[in-house]
Design a protein that fits this description.
The chain is of the alpha+beta class. It contains 19 helices and 20 strands. The protein is globular. The structure holds CIS-heme D hydroxychlorin gamma-spirolactone (HDD).
Length: 726
């Protein structure tokens, strides 16, 4: 008689008696759901007698042995008949899907967007209409150039893609943490990406632009240089995904109920403030914790410290656009906030980690073409190329036009049309009618709705068919200069350092010279600094299609000017040894907690330490696994005996000297001196050091940590600092 299974009794065949649970030796810890025994290979086998927990094949057949394949005799050969083995290996062989051709490494989280200011005056989009309305979202952050398994702190642009599951369908803002892009025309995108990724003959370098091919391409592409300035700034080595801005880059349109259009640029402003790390730190973080950014986001959400961004819009009409000294349809340009202010209209809160990385983060499919009624495209040519590329790439990556049936991509509103079949179709309509027009009346399925259906904005277009770039796109240096002069001194230094670093990795001298020739059109001082740093003569300036304008600096372009106002959400590393003072430790952890920041103990052994009052404190990191680059600030509180011991330990000395070199605020006990001396920290302590004697000192220290770093130190510890322009 054929037997069937119900979901409730999955794994158990009707009428079958479950196998008896094996007996364990007396006193053994007996798990409730399974028993443990030793397999014939000495391995631990865990078996169950509970039908509901019984392992099955993909066809639902119960599995009795998942450790041994079917063999003729104990030593083989293995039998082809073993369908359980074959199915398991077959499935494993097909676990991977192609990684994204760019933005392969990323991390996603669920969230909610709440509207705080209605734009109903400008758009009929429901998601932007009603104050207080909440919309489910899924956000994926990414790097661009590296492969899926690359490290998080590559110097790279960060992707910031947001999917809104609105009541009118899915709306995606597929943006970056930089408001402009490298190229003006989508036909260049494959070349740009080929140039920045690993060189094809040798398959390195991974996840970095510091190589000949990238700089060869960039130095031959004047339009890239505004973006190059952003790329060489600390924007591309962010402290956390939580501390980056996001930009939709292109101009879009908002269209109201009467059909009137207003241009819009989208911005995400992090409530955590903008924060970055130093380059030398980034290099070391990649070794110490290649998952630094994903771990940081996951931990913040897991602990209930939900990161938030405000959604801002720059709204402008054609008249304003006509007055701008550049073309807003050119993706290599931004509109300074001083010219068109950013209006904050809602808040995005990331409040839930994924349950399954593959199902959600890997399979989420963003498309710039996903817009809802009330939102439309501008004429930006780069955007039109993207509208083709994203849909196309999903077919390759996810393997079926039915990728919208996957739960992470499925709209939360009804989906009704006559598209059908295809690989893995999950949403299969019932009934006889699969075409329109049809005359089946009420049984005829979905119909067009001219009232609420999407209508493209009827922009007038005309022109000769030609392959040409607009004359209005030709100024490549003015905004690059504006970006540079909007930076604080230390940020300008970092841009110079980054250019010198990257170009030092370029082998061909002519490519280095061509790169510096563009800098001459951006800032004479920067060009001189970089040429000096590379030990080369200053080349002639690159030929510019238009003279560089002196645009006014914009404070919004600086990270430091837009940093956090508290230490909240950041991490203090507290280095302890046996005999460390309990009172200091207590005062410090209380001050950190009051600031809503977090702390972690680093100790010589992972088992922890015993403080001077006998309290035992567990360590989160053993010193070798917890270098100071993993922390925003550090407290070094050894006992006298502990400090003498650490002074002989290379990892401990690195901990201190890196914290010093990376301009971190450093709290310390008086006893730490022995370690500082051995780590060759100059005896005169700057104002970034905080000797801790009592609880009040701890509060002062945490207050100081609200600033990102003690920047004046950098000028003293970095040889290149002397070449910073006065
Ligand atoms: Fe792109 C992925 C952002 C230009 C073609 N892009 C991708 C992602 C982000 C961006 C954030 C990752 C989405 C995710 O997390 O899954 N891309 C941008 C921005 C651009 C841009 C801000 C310029 C303003 N992109 C661009 C052009 C093209 C593409 C000009 C092609 C003509 N981008 C792709 C792609 C990807 C992609 C190949 C790879 C994986 C994917 O789409 O889903 O289609």
């Amino acid at each position: 008689m054929a037997t069937t299974k119900t979901p409730q009794s999955a794994g158990k065949l009707k009428g079958e008696t479950p196998a008896k649970a094996p007996t364990l030796p007396a006193g053994a810890d007996m798990p409730t759901s399974y028993a443990e025994q030793q397999g014939s290979g000495g391995e631990t086998r865990q078996t169950t007698s509970d039908p509901a927990l019984t392992m099955t094949t993909q066809q639902g057949i119960s599995v009795a042995d998942d450790q041994n394949s079917l063999k003729a005799g104990p030593r083989g050969p293995t039998l082809l008949e073993d369908f359980i083995l074959r199915e398991k290996i077959f499935h494993f062989d097909h676990e991977r899907i192609p990684e994204r051709v760019v933005h392969a490494r990323g991390y996603g989280a669920h969230g909610v967007f709440e509207l705080t200011d209605s734009l109903s005056e400008y758009t009929s989009a429901d998601v932007l209409g009603t104050v207080g309305q909440q919309t489910e979202t899924f956000v994926r952050f990414s790097t661009v150039a590296g492969n899926k398994g690359s490290f998080d702190l590559a110097r790279d642009v960060r992707g910031f893609a947001v999917k809104f599951y609105t009541r009118q369908g899915n709306w995606d803002i597929v943006g970056n943490n930089i408001p402009v892009f490298f190229i003006q025309d989508p036909i260049k995108f494959p070349d740009l990406v080929h140039a920045v990724k690993q060189e094809p003959d040798r398959a390195f370098p991974q996840a970095q632009s510091a190589h000949d091919n990238y700089w060869d391409y960039a130095s031959l592409s004047p339009e890239a240089w505004h973006m190059v300035m952003w790329q060489m700034s600390d924007r591309t080595i962010p402290r956390s995904f939580r501390t980056i801005e996001g930009f939709g880059v292109h101009s879009f349109r908002l269209v109201d109920k009467a059909g009137k259009s207003t241009f819009v640029k989208f911005h995400w402003k992090p409530r955590q403030g903008l924060q970055s790390v130093l380059w030398n730190e980034a290099v070391k973080i990649n070794g110490a914790d290649p998952d630094f950014h994903r771990r940081d986001l996951w931990q913040a959400i897991e602990s209930g410290d939900f990161p938030q961004w405000d959604l801002g819009v720059q709204l402008f009409d054609q008249e304003t656009a006509d007055k701008l000294p550049f073309d807003h349809l050119d993706s290599t340009k931004l509109i300074p906030e001083e010219d068109v202010p950013v209006r904050l209209i809602g808040t995005l809160t990331l409040n839930r980690n994924v349950d399954n990385f593959f199902a959600e983060t890997e399979q989420v499919a963003y498309c710039t073409q996903n817009i809802v009624p009330g939102i439309d495209f501008s004429d930006d040519p780069l955007l039109h190329g993207r509208n083709f590329s994203y849909l196309d790439t999903q077919l390759k990556r996810l393997g079926s036009p039915n990728f919208t049936h996957l739960p992470i991509n499925a709209p939360r509103c009804p989906v009704m049309n006559f598209q059908q079949d295809g690989h893995m179709a999950m949403r299969n309509p019932k009934g006889r009618v699969n075409y329109e027009p049809n005359s089946w009346g009420a049984d005829g399925g979905p119909r067009e709705n001219p009232e609420i259906g999407f209508k493209s904005f009827p922009a007038e277009v005309q022109g000769t068919k030609q392959r040409i770039r607009s004359e209005t796109f030709a100024d490549h240096y003015s905004q690059a200069r504006q970006f540079y002069i909007s930076q604080q001194k230390i940020e300008q230094k970092h841009i110079g350092d980054a250019l010198v670093f990257e170009l030092s990795k370029v082998e061909r001298v002519d490519i280095r010279a061509r790169a510096v020739s563009h800098l001459r059109n951006i800032d004479a001082g920067l060009a001189a600094t970089v040429a000096d740093g590379l030990g080369m003569d200053l080349p002639d300036a690159a030929k510019a299609a238009k003279p560089t304008l002196d645009l006014a600096p914009s404070a919004k372009l600086s990270i430091i000017a837009n940093g956090p106002d508290s230490f909240a959400g950041r991490k203090l590393g507290i280095f302890l040894t046996n005999g460390s003072k309990a009172a200091l430790f207590k005062a410090l952890t209380e001050a950190v907690t009051a600031e809503r920041a977090i702390w972690e103990v680093i100790a010589p052994k992972i088992g922890g330490v015993t403080l001077d009052d006998g309290t035992k404190v567990a360590a989160k990191q053993k010193i070798d696994g917890g270098p100071s680059v993993l922390y925003d600030a550090v407290a070094i509180l050894p006992s006298a005996e502990g400090a003498a011991m650490l002074a002989k330990d290379a990892a401990s000395k690195d901990f201190v000297s890196d914290a010093f070199g990376h301009c971190k605020f450093i709290a310390h006990s008086a006893e730490a001196k022995a370690l500082f001396d051995e780590a060759r920290i100059p005896p005169e302590r700057d104002e970034g050091f905080f000797p801790l004697a009592d609880g009040k000192d701890a509060e002062g220290f945490i207050k100081a940590c609200r600033d990102l770093r003690f920047w004046p130190r950098e000028m003293k510890v970095d040889l290149d600092a002397k070449s910073v322009r006065k």
